């Protein structure tokens, strides 16, 4: 059985295009762990959280809770065979909620290690599909920072099998939006 970790990061809840596409593509499938990072926000990376993620003794209760949450997120990641990430474009980048998830799971010695030749990811053999939605057209332009950011972050922890599904022009008229949603659904059906 395939276990799928779904990460949703849209602040739009039921009105989210990325959430709707993923929900439709995964309808009726089993073995899904869903984490809605907007509905259940993760703590921001600050000095206390960064200290907690390094572990050690004398952690405050708040730091112990942050470390336990990070451990839980990493266990969800490790248990998954497939990852589906909703990454709508907000101001030319992923939502803060998704960045917070990466901040909590990128841990030296746990999800990556430093070697003499540089960092090596420790999370491997995970097929990943990123559904990225945008109001305009950005895919083949320098404004498409989401693909490079996510490819870098996922690769950093060892995930290199990454496919991107784009739904663009969602705010450029209903005909363009409907065509983009249909095309994205066809791609998603093939990938998941």
From TrEMBL:
- Chain ranges of the Flavodoxin-like fold domain: 3-190
- Enumerate the residues binding FMN: 10, 16-18, 89-92, 133-136
Q: So which domain of life are we looking at?
A: Bacteria
Which top EC class is named for this enzyme in its record?
oxidoreductase
A GO molecular function assigned to this protein is: oxidoreductase activity, acting on NAD(P)H, quinone or similar compound as acceptor
Give the EC number(s) under which this enzyme is classified.
1.6.5.-, 1.7.1.17
Q: Which residues form a coiled coil?
A: none
Q: Which cofactor does it need?
A: FMN
Supply the alphabetized keyword list: Flavoprotein, FMN, NAD, Oxidoreductase
The role this protein plays is:
Also exhibits azoreductase activity. Catalyzes the reductive cleavage of the azo bond in aromatic azo compounds to the corresponding amines.
Family statement drawn from the similarity comment of this UniProt entry: Belongs to the azoreductase type 1 family.
Subunit-structure text: Homodimer.
Q: Could you identify this protein by its name?
A: FMN dependent NADH:quinone oxidoreductase
- Report the source organism: Vibrio galatheae
Gene of origin?
Answer: azoR
